[in-house]
Amino acid sequence: MEGEVVVVFTLLLLCLLHPFSFISANMEGDALHTLRTNLEDPNNVLQSWDPTLVNPCTWFHVTCNSDNSVIRVDLGNAALSGQLVPQLGLLKNLQYLELYSNNISGPIPSDLGNLTSLVSLDLYLNSFTGPIPETLGKLSKLRFLRLNNNSLTGTIPMSLTNITALQVL
């Protein structure tokens, strides 16, 4: 009887802890998987983006640092369409976001302003609409911001003048 109690207690404990391990599972992988589900991918370039893996570091077109944190997403010229997702702003160590020469549309998420490690943001040759988010002015390490050949409206935000590292706009 005592052995059965231990087994039941252990199973109960595992059931209680499992949701927390799922919630704390790689948030970056969850963010990228959300992007994947929001994009049309006719050439299956995102086929390796399997949300059941521990982290996205083994996915094609994703580079991680030694701490298994995403630092680069390379999806330029991949024939992708759809819209970006605000969850991209959760990739706190992302340095390079390369999404140029696709058919991505809709607004540029203001959440990209949370990517404070970003060095290069390449969104040129897409179908983005709306204004350039003011929040991009928070990207103090940004050196390359390429937004040309989109359907953006409005003026260039004054906040971008705060980025002293910016070399290409």
UniProtKB/TrEMBL annotation:
Keyword Hydrolase: no
Signal sequence residues: 1-25
Domain Disease resistance R13L4/SHOC-2-like LRR: 74-169
InterPro entries, alphabetized: LRR_dom_sf, LRR_N_plant-typ, LRR_R13L4/SHOC2-like
Alphabetic keyword roster: Leucine-rich repeat, Repeat, Signal
Record's keyword annotation contains Signal: yes
Pfam families hit by this protein: LRR_14 (PF23598), LRRNT_2 (PF08263)
Domain Leucine-rich repeat-containing N-terminal plant-type: 26-65
UniProt-recorded name of the protein: Leucine-rich repeat-containing N-terminal plant-type domain-containing protein
Organism taxonomic ancestry: Eukaryota, Viridiplantae, Streptophyta, Embryophyta, Tracheophyta
